[in-house]
Amino acid sequence: MDLLSIAFYLSVLTYYLGVLIYMLPIPIYGLKKWAPQLMVDGVFSAILVFSYSLIMWLIQYFSGILGSDWNRYNEWLLKEINIIISVILLFKAIGIGLSSMGLGFLANSLLSPLISSLTYLLVFLLTVSTLVYALYLLSHTLVAVGLVLHSIPFRITRSSGAMLISVVIIFSIGAPLMPSFIDLISNNVVEQINENKYGVVYADIIVTDLVNNGISHSVVEFRGMDQNLLARYLADIAGYVDSSDIDKGIPSEKTYISIDIVGYKYSFIITPEDLLEKKDNKLVLPIKLSNVISIKPLHYMIFMGFHGNISIVSITNSSGTIMVSSSTEYVLLLILPIGDSGKIVLDNSSIEPDNVVEYKWGGIDFKAYKYIISLGNHTISYEVRGNYYSKPVIDEIYYTRDTLGISIDKPVYFINIVSSLIYRVFIGPIVYVSILFTASTALAKLLGGSSSKIARIVVTGV
Amino acid sequence: MTNIISFIQELIVNITIIAWIIFFLTWVIGWAIKGSPIPFLRVKRAGERMIEDAVWAAFWLAMGTTVFALIAYIANTFYQPLPEPPTI
Going by C-beta distance under 8 Å and a sequence separation of 6 or more, which residues neighbour residue A48? Predict the structure, then answer.
C-alpha cells in the first residue's frame, strides 16, 4: 500500500470537498466557514506530501550539524548498562558475604531495595532506548503514516498526524545527543561510577607447600590486569588468610596473584571464582606451591627454575631428606632468619652456598643461601638450627574497605552509588525526553495544529 | 489495498461531478432569489452571496487540477521526484 499516494489523494479529496461546501446553497455561516479551511488544508497537505523527501533530508542535515551520532549513543548505553550490572553484582556479592556471616538481615533491609531499584533502572533505560531507536529506524514509515493522518478531511486526525511527524523529526535528530546532555547535567554534580571489573567474593585463602603444610606468613597480593594493586593480605602462621570479613574479600574475576615468601615472589594469573572450594561452611581459595618446602615458620626451602619432581624420604620440622630429579639446572634457596643457621648435604657430601644474600623483609632480617644444583637425580638432606620467630610487619590493603571504598558501617556509600546512578540514568533521560517532547509539540503546532488539550495534559499534567 | 486508492479516486471524481451539478443549481437558485419580487434587501443580498460563492467555487473547481499540478511541478524542480515511498 502506497502511503504517500493515499495521503496525496486524501488531500485532493479534502480540497474538492471544500469546493463543494463552498458552492452549497445553504447560507449558514457555520457550514460555510469550513469551505476555505478545507481547501487550504488540502493544498497544505499536498505540499507536505511532496516534501516527504525534504523532511527526510532535513533530519539528516540537522543530525549532521548538531553532531548526532548513534554510535556514540550506543556506546554510552552499553557503558551505563555495564556499570549498573556490575554494581548489582557487587551488591549481591556483598549480600552473600553478609548472609554467610549471619548478618543476613542487613543484606535484606539495606541491599535488597537498592538492588531492586537498580533492576528497575535497567528496565527503564532499556525501554527508553528501544523506544527512541524504534522511532529512528521506523522514521520513514512513521512520517508517511503521519502524512496520511494529516491529510484526512475535516481535520479529524490532522493534529495526530502533525504530532507524529514532528515527534519522529525531533527524536531522530535529538535522541543521539542524550549522552552529551547527561554529561552536561552530571558533570561535577554526581561522582562518576566506574565499572567494577573484578567482582568480589568473600573467601579465605590457604597457601600450602609441597607437603601440604601451610606456608606461614606468605603475603598474597592481587593485582588487576594493568598491574594496579587491588589487595594485599598477610597469611598467619599456618599459611591461612582470613579474608572473608566484610571489610576484606578478594576479587572474583581474572586477576594477577602473587605469593610473596619472605621476599621471593611467585606470580600467576588466576580466576578465583573457578577455584573456590567449600570447607566447613566457608569458601576457601586453595593455592599450592609445589616447589616450596616450609620447614618451620620463617624458615623455607625454595626450588627455583625447577622442572621435575621431588619425593620426600623423611621430613621433620628442623631437618629432612628428599630425592630430587630435574631435567634442568636449578637453584636451591634456603632462607633463614639471621641468627639461625642451616646446612645442605647433596648426595652425602656437604656443600657450600654459591651465594649468600642478606636482606630485610617485613621488619625481620633474613639470610638467603643460594645453591646451584645440576640436573639429574640427587638426594638432598637439610638441617636447620635455631627457632627464631617474630611476626612480620606488612601493610595490608583490604579489598572491600580500601580498594572498593565500601564499609558496612557507612551505608550511605551504597545509597550514594544508587542515587547518582538514578540521577544519571533516570532523571537525566526523563528531563531530556520531555525537552524533546515539548519541542515536538511546538513543531506540530506549526505543521497543523497540535491537539493542544492532549499535549498540555501530557507535558504539564502527568 | 489498492482499493483504498481507487476508492478515493472514485470519490474525487464523483464529488467533482456533484460539484458541477450543485454549481449550476446554486447559480440558478441565487439568480432566482435575486430576481424575485420579495421586497427584503437581506433576501436579495443572500441571493447575491450565493451567486458569488458559486462562481468562485466553480473557478476553484476548475483550477483544482492546475493547483495540484503546480505543487507537483515546484516540488519536482526543487527536489527529486518522490522517492520510493514506504509500502506496508
Answer: A147, A150, A151, A447
pLDDT at A282 over 90: no
Q: How far apart are CA A118 and CA A126, in angstroms?
A: 12
How many CA atoms lie less than 13 Å away from A249 in the CB half-sphere? 30
Cβ–Cβ below 8 Å for B22 and A144: no
Query: What is the C-alpha separation between A269 and A252, in angstroms, rounded?
Result: 12
Residues of B within an 8 Å Cβ radius of A = 1-2, 4-5, 8-9, 11-12, 15-16, 18-19, 22-23, 25-26, 29-30, 46, 49-50, 53-54, 56-58, 60-61, 64, 67-68, 71-72, 74-75, 79-80, 82-83, 85-88
Three cell numbers, residue A108 = 535484606
Integer Cα distance of A96 and A108 in angstroms: 10
* Mean pLDDT of the A220-232 span: 88
Report yes or no on whether pTM surpasses 0.90.
no
ipTM: 0.86
Subunit contact A23:B4, Cβ cutoff 8 A: no
Supply A282's cell numbers. 566457608
Residues of B in contact with A19 (CB under 8 A): 19, 57, 60-61, 64
Residue A419 has pLDDT above 80, yes or no: yes
Q: Which of B1, B6, B15, B80 to mutate to test the interface with A (most CBs of A within 10 A)?
A: B15
